[in-house]
Design brief:
Elements: E1 6-10, H1 26-35, E2 40-43, H2 55-66, E3 74-78, H3 84-97, E4 101-105, H4 115-126, E5 134-138, H5 140-143, H6 149-156, E6 163-168, H7 173-181, E7 188-191, H8 197-203, E8 207-210, H9 213-228, H10 232-251, H11 254-257, H12 259-265, H13 282-294, H14 297-300
Parallel strand pairs: 1-2, 1-8, 2-3, 3-4, 4-5, 5-6, 6-7
Length: 302
């Protein structure tokens, strides 16, 4: 089983101001991430507004990112939709274009309340790309699917041969630790709460996926380095810098609505968000920028 180490950026999807895709942004976007020592990207997920795009648009985005893929820069394609059939088709496409892996959150509509139903859904999706690792995307605050992940792994491993692990975007540190140590550490459990990265590292995570890694990977790589050097106090102080930023981010809409303006502040214009996602006003952007300058944000990302 292949495991991901380091930071995976949950990418924003670049849109033009007329609402169409702006794929020309992606090469420069990828170059920036590689320069910041990001290990890869997670595309068309929550941050990428995947559920607000058509099937064809998602395929175009995935293909554009796979063109930037290297051995050291992996592309994980989120294929989740409310339809297992549609998700399987997206998975088939991801395998055809040569992505590293696929991932899928639990379906939001008629969300499964039993592990068996969730596993059945994921098995159909993962089967569309049998040659690629499959990660279940556990994000109950978005999907509404909040089932025990230990039970999911125990049942899913029997019917999903290419199951590789979980993109674990939840604050249950006890459960993530249990998942990391299940089956003698077999599973690749990717931590997904950026402002708690240090806690995830302490639990045993080696890889992480998050939206703020798009523009703050330099800071988070310093956290990882300090942790691996047993300089825990330095790691704590660096994590606190992240927390100071995230407090502001949340006031301006959170990782998606508040994150796209930050991308523009840092040199990559990903355009507006699609309706019904909220775009902050120009006045709010100006105040946002002032607040970021006040905490020394641009020193953190340089």
């Amino acid at each position: 089983m292949q495991k991901i180490k380091g930071l995976i950026a949950a990418t924003f999807t670049p849109f033009k101001y007329d609402g169409s895709l702006n794929l020309k942004v992606i090469p420069a976007y990828a170059e920036k991430l590689k320069k910041d020592n990001v290990s890869g990207v997670f595309v068309c997920g929550t941050t990428g507004e995947g559920m607000l795009m058509t099937e064809e648009e998602r395929m175009h985005v995935a293909k554009a990112w796979v063109k930037e893929q290297t051995d050291d820069f992996k592309v994980v394609v989120h294929v989740g939709t409310t339809s297992a059939i549609q998700s399987r088709k997206l998975a088939e496409h991801a395998q055809e274009i040569g992505a590293f892996a696929t991932s899928c959150m639990g379906p939001m509509f008629l969300a499964p309340s039993k592990i068996t139903d969730l596993v059945d859904f994921c098995a159909l999706v993962a089967g569309g790309a049998p040659n690629l690792p499959f990660y279940y995307y556990h994000i109950p605050t978005v999907s509404g699917v909040n089932l025990p992940m230990i039970a999911f792994l125990m049942e899913a491993k029997q019917v999903i041969p290419n199951l590789n692990g979980i993109k674990y975007t939840n604050r249950n540190l006890m459960e993530i630790m249990q998942c990391l140590h299940l089956d003698h550490g077999r599973w690749d459990i990717l931590h997904g709460v950026d402002e708690e990265l240090l806690m995830g590292l302490t639990a045993g995570a080696k890889g992480a996926i998050g939206s703020t890694y798009n523009y703050m990977a330099i800071l988070y790589n310093k956290i990882i380095k300090a942790f691996e050097s047993d300089n825990i106090e330095k790691a704590r102080q660096l994590q606190l810098r992240s927390i100071s930023f995230v407090e502001i981010l949340l006031r301006y809409g959170g990782g998606v609505s508040g994150g796209k303006p930050v991308m523009k502040f840092t040199g990559i214009d990903c355009g507006p968000l699609r309706t019904p996602a909220h775009n902050i006003s120009e006045g709010e952007k100006a105040r946002y920028l002032d607040e970021l300058k006040a905490i020394g944000f641009f020193d953190l990302v340089a």
